[in-house]
User: Fold this.
Amino acid sequence: MKFYDRENELAELKRIQTLSFTDHSRLTVITGRRRIGKTSLVMKAVKDAPTIYLFVSRKNEASLCAEYIPLISQALSTYVPEGIKAFRSLFQYLLEQAKSKAFNLVIDEFQEFYNINESIYSDMQNLWDSYRMDTHMNLIVSGSAYSLMQKIFRNSKEPLFGRADNIIKLSAFSIATLKKIMHDYQPNHTADDLLALYSFTGGIPKYVELFCDNGTLDVEGMISFMARDNSPFVDEGKYLLIEEFGKNYATYFSILNAISGGINTQSAIEAALGEKSIGGQLKRLIEDYNVITRRRPILSKKGTQAIRYEITDNFLRFWFNYFDRYRSLVEIKNYVGLQQIIKADYPTYSGHCLELYFKQLLAETSQYREIGSWWDLKNGQNEIDIVALKLEKDKALVIEVKRQKKNFKPELLKQKVEHLKNKVLPKYNIDMQCLSLEDM
Assistant:
């Protein structure tokens, strides 16, 4: 698949590179979940300048240094002394080189130094503080473990706190980019095909690339491609999260499995887990791991009891809903059975994803100051899919989302809107509409 999107990020990285080469060294941090395209972005940004790319794998520090020495020698066309066994010495050598040469140093999976030698971070901090004003190194570090990267650069107790000149967090592809990709690779796609791509991948570039490169961009083709023997999707959720959660991942997985299946309040999740108290785990899933979010009815107060939890990542929501929940089918390689379950569920499962799609589409217009849903804790019938508050004062848009417009009941929505006005939007002018597959 060709390179898409990221124009703003590329421009920013080019700007920082110019400053690093002409003024003094800069440190840029690139974060984002695995498969989001961090490495592809960085390497595209630095392709026309001298660049050293170092990948931090879980090896002995001396072995890593031995691996890095020929890479550095080749990139800078210079002799690097053999026998350097500490990364501190190698980093100092590079900073000395940067006194007379301008170059990029890219360190990928930077958080892995925690598992090799944690003191590397304090060593780098001391050297960086000493050299950066007199050198021309464009240092770019990236990492996929959200909790560790946050700790390294945002925790005031860590040595590299405050050292990053820029922190760029990569997000998934926009709706506009997904539409362009579909147009390029599947010109005759249906609205349901586009919804499936969004529902299954959430716009994560690597997953989109897999579908594009394998020519599977229709609903049934995507499902068959994911749910098969040796599929890269089968264990993907596990690989993504175990590094974040560590060996105590079982409880976190149980919570995410429950949320993906629609059990989305704390009391209901605790009941599903055998009355296990999970307040601490929910807090960490939100604040430390960035995997779930708290949803409240729009305009409700922070202390409201009407809180629902939702997985923030479309792919993880899908993975827990099918690959984790039906692990027994995967274990016996009954992928035909798993495909049948996913295909039968798809019309219902994709209904909620369609609501998320339209929320994102509205957000990307930059015409709204707040977008959410609304529900009445006392009356479960009074629930509205999307409430969007416009930038203009006292104007709102209320939307009912249906896969098929024929299922829309205008009078029922009108009743809900009256209730909404009485509760939280008494002075608002409210427009009402239904959005469906044909509006994608």
In short: The chain has 19 helices and eleven strands.
